[in-house]
Design goal:
Blueprint: E1 4-8, E2 12-18, E3 21-29, H1 33-46, E4 52-58, E5 66-69, H2 79-88, E6 94-101, H3 108-125, E7 129-133, E8 135-143, H4 147-156, E9 160-166, E10 169-177, H5 181-189, E11 195-198
Antiparallel strand pairs: 1-7, 2-3, 3-6, 4-5, 4-6, 8-10, 8-11, 9-10
Amino acid sequence: MTDQYKTIRNKSEGLFKDRGSKFISIAIPVGSETVIKEELEKIRKEYHDARHHCYAYKLGTGDDKWRVNDDGEPSGTAGNPIMGQIKSYGLTNILIIVVRYFGGTLLGTGGLINAYRAAARESLENAEIIHRTVNCSYKLLFGYPVMNEVMKLVKDENLEQSDQVFEIDCKMKVRFRASLEKRIIERLRLIKGLRFEKEQ
């Protein structure tokens, strides 16, 4: 598992036309299935008069969180070609919806595959592709006497800190790249009286 991935910075759109049919593609950066559902609802409302709202999405750096949907088009002619573009650009945490307005002429299987692929590619051509890192968050709980040791570790490892409380009982949140997790946990364990838990 790598702790780096490629996604898009902002929403972007594309358009492809073939024999009167219009294919409007919308690429959206997403972080969860809840957000995906919300975005699909928005697009269905905005383009409520369109015949099809086909889509594909991929989440995370593994290969297990993805889905394709042909939304009434012949099986394999819409969702898969959209996913093909997500994969060829090497992207994740992305949803691409292609909205089709039927132009009266049937395009056939090959024509549909080409149209959905081209529309999805257009939205990605217009997107700004960025690199992001996968991060871990931990909550640290410790007594005042070990504060110097904790702060030294935070400084040494350049950890991002937030929600600090320094009283008799101290607590803080730290964030760091997933690839450093094993090393940082080993160092946290060496500090006597420090408790830590991973945030989901």
